[in-house]
Amino acid sequence: MNTLFSVVICDDDPDFVDDLNKKVIDITKKLNVQCEISLLYNGKELIEHCRKNISDIVLVDIDMPDIDGFKAVQTLRQQQSDLAVIFITAHEEYAFQAYNYQPFWFVSKNDLSMLEDVLIKLFRKIEYRKTVQEIVYIRSDKLIAINTEQVMYITSSGHYLIPHTSHGEESSSRCGIQQAYASLKGFGFICAHRSCIVNCRYIDKFTQQSITLKNGIELPVSRNKDIVDEATELYKQFLRRLRW
163, 185, 188, 213 — which has fewest CB within 10 A? Predict the structure, then answer.
Protein backbone atom coordinates (compact mmCIF):
# COMPACT_ATOMS: atom_id res chain seq x y z
CA MET A 1 0.00 0.00 0.00
CA ASN A 2 1.26 3.47 -0.91
CA THR A 3 -1.13 5.39 1.33
CA LEU A 4 0.12 7.05 4.52
CA PHE A 5 -2.36 6.35 7.33
CA SER A 6 -2.90 8.49 10.41
CA VAL A 7 -3.66 6.33 13.46
CA VAL A 8 -4.60 7.53 16.95
CA ILE A 9 -4.44 5.35 20.08
CA CYS A 10 -6.25 6.62 23.19
CA ASP A 11 -6.44 4.89 26.56
CA ASP A 12 -6.04 6.12 30.16
CA ASP A 13 -3.68 3.22 30.91
CA PRO A 14 -0.18 4.28 29.69
CA ASP A 15 1.15 0.72 29.83
CA PHE A 16 -1.65 -0.54 27.60
CA VAL A 17 -1.11 2.38 25.19
CA ASP A 18 2.55 1.33 24.87
CA ASP A 19 1.62 -2.33 24.34
CA LEU A 20 -1.04 -1.46 21.75
CA ASN A 21 1.34 0.91 19.98
CA LYS A 22 3.94 -1.87 19.67
CA LYS A 23 1.31 -4.26 18.33
CA VAL A 24 0.11 -1.77 15.72
CA ILE A 25 3.71 -1.07 14.66
CA ASP A 26 4.37 -4.82 14.31
CA ILE A 27 1.24 -5.21 12.18
CA THR A 28 2.09 -2.27 9.91
CA LYS A 29 5.63 -3.56 9.40
CA LYS A 30 4.30 -6.98 8.52
CA LEU A 31 1.86 -5.45 6.02
CA ASN A 32 4.40 -2.91 4.74
CA VAL A 33 2.01 -0.09 5.63
CA GLN A 34 3.16 3.44 6.44
CA CYS A 35 1.54 4.94 9.54
CA GLU A 36 1.83 8.02 11.69
CA ILE A 37 0.73 6.98 15.18
CA SER A 38 -0.35 9.45 17.88
CA LEU A 39 -0.57 8.31 21.53
CA LEU A 40 -3.17 9.98 23.77
CA TYR A 41 -4.36 9.27 27.31
CA ASN A 42 -7.85 10.74 27.81
CA GLY A 43 -10.98 11.78 25.96
CA LYS A 44 -10.19 15.50 26.15
CA GLU A 45 -6.81 14.99 24.48
CA LEU A 46 -8.47 12.87 21.81
CA ILE A 47 -11.09 15.49 20.98
CA GLU A 48 -8.50 18.28 20.87
CA HIS A 49 -6.11 16.25 18.70
CA CYS A 50 -8.81 15.35 16.16
CA ARG A 51 -10.06 18.94 16.10
CA LYS A 52 -6.66 20.05 14.82
CA ASN A 53 -5.70 17.00 12.74
CA ILE A 54 -7.35 14.80 10.12
CA SER A 55 -7.09 11.20 11.31
CA ASP A 56 -7.92 7.96 9.52
CA ILE A 57 -8.26 5.49 12.39
CA VAL A 58 -8.90 5.90 16.13
CA LEU A 59 -8.39 3.01 18.53
CA VAL A 60 -10.05 4.16 21.73
CA ASP A 61 -10.89 2.73 25.13
CA ILE A 62 -14.52 3.10 26.23
CA ASP A 63 -14.06 3.27 30.00
CA MET A 64 -12.07 6.46 30.67
CA PRO A 65 -12.60 9.12 33.39
CA ASP A 66 -14.29 12.48 32.67
CA ILE A 67 -14.90 11.98 28.95
CA ASP A 68 -15.38 8.29 28.12
CA GLY A 69 -14.84 6.76 24.71
CA PHE A 70 -18.51 6.99 23.74
CA LYS A 71 -18.75 10.72 24.48
CA ALA A 72 -15.45 11.41 22.76
CA VAL A 73 -16.47 9.56 19.60
CA GLN A 74 -19.82 11.35 19.55
CA THR A 75 -17.92 14.64 19.38
CA LEU A 76 -15.43 13.32 16.84
CA ARG A 77 -18.26 12.32 14.51
CA GLN A 78 -19.36 15.96 14.40
CA GLN A 79 -15.84 17.02 13.44
CA GLN A 80 -15.04 14.24 10.96
CA SER A 81 -17.93 12.03 9.92
CA ASP A 82 -15.81 9.50 8.00
CA LEU A 83 -13.45 8.74 10.90
CA ALA A 84 -12.92 4.99 11.39
CA VAL A 85 -13.32 4.02 15.05
CA ILE A 86 -12.22 0.80 16.73
CA PHE A 87 -13.38 0.48 20.32
CA ILE A 88 -10.91 -1.50 22.43
CA THR A 89 -12.06 -2.34 25.95
CA ALA A 90 -11.97 -4.98 28.66
CA HIS A 91 -15.73 -4.51 29.22
CA GLU A 92 -17.25 -6.77 26.61
CA GLU A 93 -20.72 -5.97 27.92
CA TYR A 94 -20.35 -2.59 26.18
CA ALA A 95 -20.22 -4.25 22.76
CA PHE A 96 -23.92 -3.86 21.95
CA GLN A 97 -24.05 -0.24 23.15
CA ALA A 98 -20.91 0.55 21.14
CA TYR A 99 -22.71 0.06 17.84
CA ASN A 100 -24.83 3.14 18.53
CA TYR A 101 -21.65 5.11 17.79
CA GLN A 102 -21.05 3.44 14.40
CA PRO A 103 -17.60 1.95 15.05
CA PHE A 104 -15.79 0.01 12.37
CA TRP A 105 -15.14 -2.77 14.90
CA PHE A 106 -15.13 -3.71 18.57
CA VAL A 107 -12.04 -5.50 19.95
CA SER A 108 -11.70 -6.97 23.43
CA LYS A 109 -8.58 -6.12 25.43
CA ASN A 110 -8.63 -9.73 26.56
CA ASP A 111 -8.04 -10.94 22.99
CA LEU A 112 -6.15 -8.65 20.62
CA SER A 113 -5.43 -11.46 18.18
CA MET A 114 -8.15 -10.26 15.82
CA LEU A 115 -6.70 -6.74 15.58
CA GLU A 116 -4.49 -7.62 12.61
CA ASP A 117 -7.43 -8.83 10.51
CA VAL A 118 -9.46 -5.76 11.48
CA LEU A 119 -6.67 -3.37 10.50
CA ILE A 120 -6.07 -5.16 7.20
CA LYS A 121 -9.72 -4.65 6.25
CA LEU A 122 -9.66 -1.05 7.39
CA PHE A 123 -6.41 -0.13 5.62
CA ARG A 124 -7.78 -1.49 2.36
CA LYS A 125 -11.07 0.31 2.74
CA ILE A 126 -9.41 3.63 3.52
CA GLU A 127 -6.90 3.26 0.70
CA TYR A 128 -9.74 2.66 -1.76
CA ARG A 129 -11.62 5.69 -0.43
CA LYS A 130 -8.54 7.89 -0.79
CA THR A 131 -7.76 6.78 -4.32
CA VAL A 132 -11.24 7.14 -5.86
CA GLN A 133 -12.00 10.42 -7.57
CA GLU A 134 -13.47 12.78 -4.97
CA ILE A 135 -14.80 15.55 -7.21
CA VAL A 136 -16.86 14.79 -10.32
CA TYR A 137 -17.74 17.62 -12.70
CA ILE A 138 -21.02 17.63 -14.61
CA ARG A 139 -21.13 19.74 -17.75
CA SER A 140 -24.36 21.69 -18.13
CA ASP A 141 -24.77 25.42 -18.76
CA LYS A 142 -21.93 25.62 -16.23
CA LEU A 143 -19.61 23.13 -14.53
CA ILE A 144 -21.32 21.51 -11.54
CA ALA A 145 -18.93 20.06 -8.94
CA ILE A 146 -20.18 17.03 -7.00
CA ASN A 147 -18.13 15.90 -4.00
CA THR A 148 -18.49 12.12 -3.95
CA GLU A 149 -17.58 11.97 -0.24
CA GLN A 150 -20.08 14.60 0.93
CA VAL A 151 -23.15 14.42 -1.33
CA MET A 152 -25.49 11.72 -0.03
CA TYR A 153 -28.11 11.97 -2.78
CA ILE A 154 -29.36 14.32 -5.49
CA THR A 155 -32.99 15.10 -6.23
CA SER A 156 -34.60 16.74 -9.24
CA SER A 157 -37.03 19.64 -9.18
CA GLY A 158 -38.15 20.65 -12.63
CA HIS A 159 -34.95 21.12 -14.62
CA TYR A 160 -32.82 21.69 -11.52
CA LEU A 161 -30.59 19.37 -9.49
CA ILE A 162 -30.52 19.67 -5.71
CA PRO A 163 -27.54 17.94 -4.00
CA HIS A 164 -28.15 16.87 -0.40
CA THR A 165 -25.30 16.53 2.11
CA SER A 166 -25.32 15.61 5.81
CA HIS A 167 -25.50 19.38 6.47
CA GLY A 168 -28.60 19.93 4.32
CA GLU A 169 -29.35 21.03 0.76
CA GLU A 170 -26.75 22.70 -1.43
CA SER A 171 -27.55 25.33 -4.05
CA SER A 172 -29.48 23.97 -7.03
CA SER A 173 -28.11 23.93 -10.58
CA ARG A 174 -29.90 23.76 -13.90
CA CYS A 175 -29.31 20.27 -15.29
CA GLY A 176 -31.33 17.19 -16.21
CA ILE A 177 -31.09 14.32 -13.76
CA GLN A 178 -30.28 11.75 -16.47
CA GLN A 179 -27.48 13.98 -17.75
CA ALA A 180 -26.09 14.16 -14.20
CA TYR A 181 -26.47 10.41 -13.73
CA ALA A 182 -24.50 9.71 -16.91
CA SER A 183 -21.55 11.57 -15.35
CA LEU A 184 -21.90 10.08 -11.85
CA LYS A 185 -22.74 6.39 -12.42
CA GLY A 186 -19.08 5.45 -12.75
CA PHE A 187 -18.24 6.99 -9.39
CA GLY A 188 -20.41 5.08 -6.93
CA PHE A 189 -23.82 6.62 -7.66
CA ILE A 190 -26.99 4.80 -8.68
CA CYS A 191 -30.36 5.93 -9.99
CA ALA A 192 -33.10 3.71 -8.56
CA HIS A 193 -35.84 6.28 -9.26
CA ARG A 194 -36.27 8.80 -12.07
CA SER A 195 -36.18 11.74 -9.63
CA CYS A 196 -33.26 10.72 -7.41
CA ILE A 197 -29.57 9.77 -7.67
CA VAL A 198 -28.07 8.06 -4.60
CA ASN A 199 -24.47 7.84 -3.39
CA CYS A 200 -23.72 4.17 -2.60
CA ARG A 201 -21.32 5.25 0.17
CA TYR A 202 -24.30 6.35 2.27
CA ILE A 203 -26.65 3.43 1.66
CA ASP A 204 -27.54 1.34 4.70
CA LYS A 205 -30.31 -0.79 3.16
CA PHE A 206 -31.49 -1.31 -0.42
CA THR A 207 -34.80 -3.17 -0.97
CA GLN A 208 -37.37 -3.39 -3.76
CA GLN A 209 -39.46 -0.80 -1.92
CA SER A 210 -36.97 1.84 -0.78
CA ILE A 211 -33.37 2.85 -0.11
CA THR A 212 -32.51 3.72 3.49
CA LEU A 213 -29.46 5.87 4.10
CA LYS A 214 -27.17 5.53 7.10
CA ASN A 215 -28.77 8.59 8.71
CA GLY A 216 -32.27 7.07 8.42
CA ILE A 217 -33.52 8.99 5.38
CA GLU A 218 -35.68 6.84 3.08
CA LEU A 219 -35.66 7.37 -0.67
CA PRO A 220 -38.04 5.91 -3.27
CA VAL A 221 -37.33 2.99 -5.59
CA SER A 222 -38.90 2.88 -9.05
CA ARG A 223 -41.44 0.26 -10.10
CA ASN A 224 -39.62 0.02 -13.43
CA LYS A 225 -37.77 -3.30 -13.39
CA ASP A 226 -35.02 -2.18 -15.79
CA ILE A 227 -34.20 0.87 -13.66
CA VAL A 228 -34.10 -1.20 -10.47
CA ASP A 229 -32.05 -4.00 -12.04
CA GLU A 230 -29.38 -1.57 -13.25
CA ALA A 231 -29.26 0.19 -9.88
CA THR A 232 -28.98 -3.13 -8.04
CA GLU A 233 -26.13 -4.35 -10.24
CA LEU A 234 -24.18 -1.08 -9.89
CA TYR A 235 -24.65 -1.19 -6.11
CA LYS A 236 -23.35 -4.77 -6.01
CA GLN A 237 -20.32 -3.73 -8.08
CA PHE A 238 -19.65 -0.89 -5.63
CA LEU A 239 -19.81 -3.27 -2.66
CA ARG A 240 -17.48 -5.75 -4.36
CA ARG A 241 -14.86 -3.00 -4.77
CA LEU A 242 -14.93 -2.48 -1.00
CA ARG A 243 -14.36 -6.13 -0.14
CA TRP A 244 -11.03 -7.48 1.02
Answer: 185
